[in-house]
Amino acid sequence: MSANPFAFYRGGAALMAADLASWPVTGLRVQLGGDAHLLNFGGYATPERNLTFDINDFDETLPGPWEWDVARLCASAPLAASARSFGKRVGEEAAYQAVASYRTHMRELAAYSPLQIWYSRVDVRGMLARELTPPQYATHVKPTQEHEDVARNTIHKYRETLLPHVRILLDRYQPMDFFEHPVGVGSVGLLTVVAHFEAREGESLYLQIKQAQASVLERYLHPSLFANHGQRAIAGQRLMQAATDLFVGWTSEGERDFYVRQLRDAKSGLDVERIDAPQLVDFAGRCGAVLARAHARTGNPQAIAAYLGAGDVYENAMAQFASVYAKQVERDYEAFCRGL
């Protein structure tokens, strides 16, 4: 989090939740991603082996006001622009485009039937080679025996959360080894283990077992309906994503909850170090479109679209908010660094 204000922002979902809790909202609720900044959108392979683009982080997912996800996405744009030294205008344009895309797609979705919304996709052709790159992972390290035992126990219980046909598929693979796995800024301190499975030599499956805890939104909204926070995360993922990994599931060990998913299944994301200014603006717009579709699946797209209107009043207001809030994040970041 000390790298720059954007990294600080990515690890500060709880701080923004506290700020958003005092906002007036429409009262229209959706399934929130809960941490919808630019780096929590990306490409991955669907079970049908198509490449898709969607929101891909659900550690904080919870039902709540749709405005909170839009604000989280919008405010991340000027911070990402600043991290690349693009200047204020690019950050404002990216924030504007994210909200404009959200509004226009929500208005389109308002005319769809529930089935049409559920089956809809956001076109990613033309963006993948330019804006998305595979993630870079630090070297895995062998876990302690205690953590390996936890992983083995969780795998056994996780199997029971899978659909019957996926259990049969999983049973064709045997666990071979376990490694601890570095996690994102918002999950530092939580246990994450990679389980390496093989069917035959060279035929590998990698599952990530990641510890889950209560959403930072619960303090300001309501407790989760799920006793297991891994289940909460996976339920939110299935509600919001257009297509979800076959192997997602959940489990627990002692007082710790976990969710499980495939690791590196054609995964790609925004490369902040290499993207140029026009690509950042375009990427922000794609994220806004994806977020609108995700919200339309669980909310009332007609009511949200009616509130957003046909003009650009909302995106102008949110672009201004993003600029002001980014400055607040920068001040918070400076205070954080002074306290280290």
Which features does this protein show?
340 residues, alpha+beta, 17% strand
Question: Helices and strands in order, then pairings?
Answer:
Blueprint: H1 5-10, H2 13-20, E1 29-32, E2 41-45, E3 51-55, E4 62-65, H3 66-83, H4 88-109, H5 114-119, H6 128-131, E5 132-133, H7 145-158, H8 164-170, E6 174-180, E7 192-198, E8 204-212, H9 229-240, E9 249-253, E10 256-262, E11 268-270, H10 277-298, H11 301-308, H12 313-338
Antiparallel strand pairs: 1-4, 2-3, 2-11, 5-11, 6-7, 7-8, 8-10, 9-10
Textual characterization of the structure:
This protein has 340 residues and is an alpha+beta fold. It folds into 2 domains: 5-135 and 270-338, no CATH class; 145-262. Helix content is 45%, strand content 17%. It has 12 helices and 11 strands. It has helices at residues 5-10, 13-20, 66-83, 88-109, 114-119, 128-131, 145-158, 164-170, 229-240, 277-298, 301-308, 313-338; strands at residues 29-32, 41-45, 51-55, 62-65, 132-133, 174-180, 192-198, 204-212, 249-253, 256-262, 268-270. It has a 5-stranded antiparallel sheet with strand order 6-7-8-10-9. A 4-stranded antiparallel sheet has the order 3-2-11-5. Strands 1-4 form a two-stranded antiparallel ribbon. Helix 3 (66-83) runs antiparallel to helix 4 (88-109), helix 3 (66-83) packs across helix 12 and helix 4 (88-109) packs across helix 12 (313-338). The protein starts with a helix and ends with a helix.
